[in-house]
Amino acid sequence: MSTQKCSACIVSFLLLLTLTLGCSRRSADDKMADDIREKVAADPETRDSKVTVKAKEGKVTLSGKVKSPSAQKRVEEIANEQPGRQGLDDQTTIDPELESAMSAAPPPEPKPAPKPIVVPSGTSLTVRTSQELNSKNSQSGQTFLATLAQPVGVNGKTALPSGATVSGTVVNAKAKGKIKGQAELSLALTSISVGGHTYSIQTNVLSSTAKGKGKRTAATTGGGAAGGALIGGIAGGGKGAAIGALVGAGAGFIGGAATGNKQIEIPAESALTFTLSEPLTLPPSKE
Fold it and tell me: 90 and 15, same structural domain?
């Protein structure tokens, strides 16, 4: 083999060796950069940083943003601990906004939806009538108005305020005849207005009958429980004269008195107590 051919072989071998070493060096640099990136992302102090890692011939260059000086120092430590590192150029900057964004408190959990207010069945509603009602002039199906005389509370909060407008109906009204027949008067509540809205209600029926002078019977119907009574202002004898209160256990009837002509009368401003026979559901409180 000639000297010229030998020289050519040596040059070719050196070129091949250089390419091989170059590829190996690039592969080692890429692996070094990947390792450092993974460690930065996994470390609790630096995982929120936005750092770019590059390596060339063993020299590591860091760039990007970190959230704090301590995070910047920790990134440098991770890079310096990397095997095969030949140098380090830290170009990272501290971004206070990044620290604030990462440390911001999570948004508060939404509050649970408020529950409706339920006034249970069996609750007493004491109302004061706005007009006179009697067995002679009132008609079955007639509507009457009243106001709630006492507030009604649920779980320590007022559900039905005093003064709320209440509507009722005359379930039955029958005048006492001159020769035979008895006077009858029965009432029930049908709705109540609260906060600008009107809600249907169901109550027991307060009833009273009068057969003859000084004789009267009474009963509760529709509710199945006692609870209605006239608190005061019962007419007897003269118009508007109060003859006492009919309040007590089992007083589930209208306490109107038979007048001289044996009719049952309940003057305006009389207080009657009814009992809810079905629960009343109201919107959640705005308090």
Answer: yes
